[in-house]
Amino acid sequence: MGKMKKVAVLLFDLFSNYELSVALSVLAQGGKEFDVFCARETAASEEGLAVKRSKALGDARAEEYDALLIPGCMDPREIIGDEAVLGFLRQFDLKTHVIASISSTPLLLLRAGLLEGKRYMAGVVKEELLEEGFTLEEMAGMTDVTGLERKDGRAKVCMEDGNLITAVGSGFIEFGIAFGKKLGLDFEPAWYGQDWK
Known about the structure:
With 197 residues, the chain is of the alpha/beta class. The protein has 6 helices and 13 strands.
């Protein structure tokens, strides 16, 4: 039996720690190892938590991983045009990897060319992205914060399309649970405060 593949976690300055909290807890419960990738030695979260990377972006070997996890960040503009980050992302493929991206970071996947033909959710407003150079055509599969569906009085905050899991920031619990289920991990969803089916 081959070695179990890990999860790659991409971090950058001003990443949102709470958006990762449930997903990382689920990985720990399920015994799934992960490596943290950053452009620099450390990344500081929006709350000021400093995280040391396991590996540099250039050390990534996508075949060692079966999934990629990306938290949102306060302002993705600094990383959205970073060729090192985009090159790292382009190693991953939705045919062979589960990719989970929350809040604003589906924009990174979009810029890297990974979302063609996919339905996804992003914690942004499409209209504002037109000023950043995105087109309505390339954002065709996106549900933004203005288009969240209401179901039983509650907004749908997490979406799956094949191996792609996306969510708005407030959906971080649903996001983490969906990620663990997609990876087939053995974990207890009730740990996160609700009776999850």
